[in-house]
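Progress report, Aim 2. The chain analyzed during this reporting quarter is listed below.
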Amino acid sequence: MNSPHPPLIGTCRCGDVRFEVSAPPVITAACHCRGCQRMTSSAYSLSAIFPESAFTITAGDPVKRGLQGPDLDHFFCPSCKTWMFTRIPALEGLINVRPTLLEDPAWTRPFMETMTSEKLSWVETPARHSFDGFPPPEDFPSLLEDFARHRDEYQ
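Predicted structure tokens for the chain:
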């Protein structure tokens, strides 16, 4: 497969907030936690994690909304309320984008799945790695390396 070429363009549902990503993701994921299930009204949320330096808001002004805490800052379109991206302080320098918002949704296939202890019993994903919770911080460098080796399989 050929990777989508940056810049990758994304938008909320109404189009008021637009963004651009100038690099491919460093990893993709599905989160099965109850919080993500409730925020998406679905079985899980999808993520494509990019270097924050490659992420730019090109139109509009997203707002912090939803459940906030010391671990997560969720950003939404103020008009249509689309959940667009999350900043996770523990992942300094990275930004967690909802990949289905990209014009080319190629990066939606999850490489890893997290919080499978809360996964709905009927859900299956093609994820290569699976974690009952979140991966331990010390595992993250090897996960990034593994994704880089297999990136073409996940878009």
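The mean pLDDT is 92. The two ends are 8 Å apart (CA to CA). These observations will guide the mutagenesis work planned for the next reporting period.
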